[in-house]
Amino acid sequence: MSSAAVGTVVLPTGDRVTVAPNGVTGIEPAVGREDVHFLALTRPSGDRIVVPSDKVEAIRSGEEDARRYNVTQLLEGGHTDAAAVPTAELDGRDYDGLVPTGGEMSAAADTQKLTVAIADTSGAVPDGNLIGAYNAATGEEGYFSFDERGVATAELPQGEYLVFGEIWNEAADGSSTELVMGITTVTLANKPVKTEFNGADASPVTVEVDQPDAVVDSAILGVGFQGASEVEGTGSGIMGFPGPETDVFVLPEPEMPEGPVLDFIYQPMLSSPAGAEEPYLYNLAFGDIGGYPEDLSFYVSDDELAVEKTTYNSFGTELSGTTCDSGNPTSSVNAGWCLEIPTDAPSTRTDYRSAGPEVEWSGYNEFGVFNDEGTMLDGFADTYTGAVLETGDTAVTKGHGLFGAGAPEMILAGGDTASATTYLYPAVGYNDESVKLVGYSGTAELSLNGEVLGSFDGTASALVVDAALTKAGRYTLTTETTRGTDTVPFGTSNTSAWSFDLDPNALADGEESRPSLPVVAMRSDGVESGYAVAAEPLDISLDLAVARHAAPVIAESMTFQVSYDDGASWTEVPLDFDGCTATATLEHPEGAEFASTRFTATDDAGTEVEQTTIRSFGLK
Fold first, then answer.
1. What secondary structure letter does DSSP report for 13?
2. Residue 51 CB-half CA count within 13 A
3. How many CB atoms lie under 10 A from the CB of residue 543?
């Protein structure tokens, strides 16, 4: 997925889709649409597509523009409200999604007819469907359009096929009542073939936990496959997001042709009843690669789970927001989706999650002030990735604080003229978290020998600088930003500058690299919710942090200054520098309310950084 495809899009239905910087994609149904289920696809192109089930037929008929549901392309175009995008700005963009192909998947001369009949668990024609055919040899796929009898016929190139997808039924109010997902395989050779996608053959998917009053909120179910025999890295499948009142079924495990490998993931969420004095949330992840789990009636005891008493801190102001956690149990290509859970900061709940090395967790939290499109205008967001949990009870706190400059993410792409896209995050907390403050206005510039190659001037959660690069040399990247104090009183003014060597011509055409642009990251056990105890010395550890996917670096020198009057005066802080990291102890003057920080550092590649953050943390 493109790094540019980060942010929040409101679909034409009002449903909200958020793509976090760590790649996790969250879905939040619009008010009154909590029982409508969603279909989601991750395409080989990397595009992520989200379609509410009640809009599939409208997309097929052309009544709805399919391009307004391609979240990746909308975000890459800078759009947050899918319904408001002018059609002219959508023209020329590929959808790569749900629109039926009419069965013509390639121009091969040897074709054969494939007829597919669909039926729900009672044998009736279902209310809705999304069924595709995937060529196991080429990786090509297309989607069927069924008649009122639940029958579709397509003329396809001969070969091995996986017929995959889902069918569903709906109540009068549009809520999902039954969902059947699955895959069946067929071979097209010298005669027409008929096959069924029959819910009567399917097995129910259920979940049971120890808490007797747990209520099923929702789930994520992915039935797909990885790889094709001649097209490495391809695969397909569909993610279903059934609502709380949806009965879920899966067809029997198919006998797979050579090449594709089955990919199954099930992530149910159960919560405490509304108004519970001690709220809890089960967020479980089950899955398999190469087949389905033997038993689709899942049960897990609390003793097998990570039981986290989680405190979601604010930074002095009560805020509303969401949490979104995605468990990947199998290195599934369908991983990285989650359902947003409304959460307040500060608040506490018990989170029961799947534990052990078989499940890797990623996710995000957002708390603040949002506009009508769901984009955060002011507040803070915390992302994490690659977490493996241990069984047993533990206390977890989110929202520690100590804010300093965020490490820039530069994406350098080779070509006749190399291009660089750089994302700058003015204030970030690295204290056992990755908390980014949102709501900044400011400027940023990338220059070479005094010539400005790209700049940004405005308001955004991340400042983005685009530039064309042709020469090797010593580049300079600078940024200066400010923010208000309505939601977070920290990071009110920030300046940073990097000086680094770069040769854009070293990359081949189409090759990408992520140059390492470090910042000095602060960590301390003595800071919570952004505040330290004013009367006690504060021990701080310092090292260099870089953006995700950039190579780590080592500090060769470092300086530290502190201010207790919002930068009017500065005091040098002695460092115990061991050759790559440092420690320092701050003793705060009486009456001080905030501490500001200023750092310089040089890494082992010769990159120099200077950074200043006004109000890095508070004192109480």
1. T
2. 27
3. 20
What distance in Å separates the CA atoms of residue 462 and residue 466, rounded to the nearest whole number?
A: 13
Q: How do residues 253-307 score in pLDDT, each as one tens digit? A: 999 988 889 999 999 999 999 889 999 999 999 999 999 999 999 999 999 999 9
Quote the CA–CA distance of 164 and 166 in Å, as a whole number.
7
Written as six digits, the tokens of 575 are 């460092």
**Beta strand extents in 272-390 (DSSP E only):** 280-283, 286-289, 297-299, 305-312, 319-328, 337-339, 341-345, 347-354, 360-370, 376-387
Query: How close are the terminal C-alpha atoms of the chain, in Å?
Result: 43
Q: Decide: helix, strand or coil at residue 370.
A: strand
Three-state DSSP class for 158? coil
Q: Is-contact 508 473, C-beta < 8 A?
A: no
**Burial, 274: exposed, middle or buried (Cβ in 10 Å; 0-12, 13-18, 19+)?**
exposed
Q: What pTM, to 2 d.p., does this model score?
A: 0.90
Q: Per-residue pLDDT tens for 465-496?
A: 999 999 999 999 999 999 999 999 999 999 99
Residue partners of 149: CB distance under 8 A and separation at least 6:
117, 125
Is 22 in contact with 383 (CB distance < 8 Å)? yes
Residue 521 identity: A
What gap in Å lies between CA 185 and CA 197, rounded to an integer?
A: 10
Residue 62, token pair as written in the block? 């052309």
Strands (E), 189-234: 193-198, 203-204, 206-208, 215-226
Report the SS3 class of residue 536. coil
